[in-house]
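Re: the pair you flagged

First of the two:
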Amino acid sequence: MHLVAYLKTGPTASYASAWRHPSAPLDDIWDAERYENLARLLEAARFDAGFFADGMGLPDIYKNSFADYVGRGGQLSLIDPMTVLPLMARVTRHLGLGNTISTTFNQPYHIARSLGSLDLLSRGRAAWNVVTSATNYEARNFGMDGMPPKDDRYDRADDVLEACFALWDCWDPDALVMDRKSGVFADASKIRYADHAGPYVSTRGPMSIPRSPQGRPLILQAGSSPRGRECAARWADMIFCTTATKADGIAFRADMHTRLAALGRSPVECAILPTLSVVIGETESIAREKAEYLDSLIDPELVMASSSTLLGVDLSRIETAEEAEVAAGNQGIAGSRDRMSQVAKAQGISFAQAVRKPRGLLAGTPAMIADVMEDWFTNGACDGFVLPPTVFPGTYEEFGRMVTPELQRRGLLRREYAGRTLRENLANPG
């Protein structure tokens, strides 16, 4: 199975109020060693990659203010992830390294140049988590009144991706010669213009960045709406989802396989990865006690502020999923709304109760956690998992020490990396 870490350049990645845990460091967020150590942990645990989720502003949707989200410690990006990814590349040889970049707010040449540079520095391990963004507070930081309609955002995303692919293809693999004796630095006949002119963006090229060992960065995507799934099926090498139950996972994966086939793509070309948050204990009772302690740290107002940000609507005024979808307008993440609706259905609670619950935790021994992962993996619900740190960095330390060996013993996880580039390791999990 494939494993990908969900990361933030801040104290909280996914689980509300986890930054309050006494083992979560708060004084090293701006230290290079924090990210270098993280990269080493993930590679030792045989993760395919780690990617940074990112946002372009401070969420102010809940109660029309950023006070609760920032003041109570939500998922904040306190540094641009592109500044720490080269640090992580420097201390690893196999780990994939991804960043989240919006197609709505950025031009293709900037995206292609930045990620192409990371891909070369890491010798073929870069990945791009493609997002179209989903909130008005981000749009206003880029001179826009609000988010464009979702279909328009995905149409632009298609155009930006086409342009980036054209730019990455400007150089043939052997265009760079660097022959001192002959005086030939590059074979210009193997470099071409991109000449992309689309409905939203245009770029002439050529790129100043040569081709990387893996050709281009891998594409990660998490679209859950019908239009988002269409985009993911066309472009993604890995698709993230937030399905709440195994049955939901099976349905999502089957739908994506149908969409991939319709585009002439094989299902093996794209890994489907649901999110899984774990609490690991040497015994079941220890794991449950650790999970209960985490629950005791939760700030209910932060949960509401976080859910409001994901759904693009002030949930202090909303009771149903239907109301949330209407009130959100062009904002909000469909996958998050779907997950909350799935939680409500699975647990027999209302939508209003579901949005007030933190992320579900899988608490258990390494064998118990491996049992669930194996069940989902072998029964068609996924091709692996996205794992956020419940507590940073302890979750990854414990996972690598206790769960990775259990998965390896069962033949479910690589013991060594099969390839040098991220693309090679995605194609051959080992």
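Second of the two:
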Amino acid sequence: MSETTAATTVPYASPASRAGNPYVSEPQDYDAILLAGFGGPEGQDDVIPFLRNVTRGRGIPDERLEEVATHYRHFGGVSPINDQNRQLRAALEAEMRRRGMTHPVYWGNRNWDPYLEDVVREAAAAGHHRILAVATSAYSSYSSCRQYREDFARALESTGLQETVTIDKVRQFFDTPGFVEPFAEGLRTALAEVTAEGHDPEQIRVLFATHSIPSADALRSGPEELNLGEGGAYAAQHRAVAERIFSDLRADGADGAEATWELVYQSRSGSPSTPWLEPDVCDRIAELPAENVTAVLIVPLGFLSDHMEVLWDLDEEALEAAAEAGLRAIRTPTPGSHPRFVAGLVDLIEERIAARPPAQRPSLTELGPWYDVCRPGCCENARLGFKPAAAGCAP
């Protein structure tokens, strides 16, 4: 990664991050940690108001939202994401206390209670004015990085705290050992299971699944100067992690590691006329029997935990597609609150506090370690353009 200095300062940033260098070089203590999530409904009455929040500004009528609401209503109107973030927050606090770190850990959401605005206000009232955020998304794109940074800016501006509270954000952690190793562990177990059942590795297909995004947004993901081609940093990061997982399994002689893998997408929404990243996971599953595949392993590589897109789009729709195709199918685990994942997040917090040089930062692909401070023009929303954002250089 380049060590060039940005020509502009970073708004809403701590002194260590304000100059806009890709990697901070000045140690910075923080008053608090902020776990930033997407949010989800916690009862049937919450579902439509929640979906209105998710689609705010797009003018989508409630009758269309009700089509998506059926996924949540299938689970009693409760998204598992809030409970999963409560567990992750508790696990982060426990690991930090084990290391002697006393920072309070706040948790705030973009789309549901507890809202980020309320949490930032609460932190400031408690005297915590220098905040380090951990977003619950590992990759680079508008929805998985820049939108969280816009959330932070909006929370500071709407509460009037933009002059007294700063919010930095740990780097994208798609290729950190703590994130990657739980996926590799789950895939190793699944490969051993299907090979023990008699499936030849050449007849096993591993589908690394992630959320589809509009192709125009994907192209804009990551800094433009990296020139990562179609799919931008978003697709490149997923491919690099999948390749690393498989190369390690093969080097270790894991059962079934000769299987073929590919990257697939899920959960697309919006106008059918708008191009989104493909192929769709269910479409690929339907094609696999013609390719002499007898078993499919679905790895939810784009997801931290078993929230709705995993429980519905993979556990319901994709596994149903596999059953219809006559395929043996396993969906492997997400990191969730896996001890290695939790420890890896705390490693990122310690790394940022200490301002460790890039060479001392763990990364498992050639794309990392990713930047502390997002670069100018990074991850633009093709439809909305740039809005004010924290933790990155202004475009």
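The first helix runs from residue 47 to 54.

-B.
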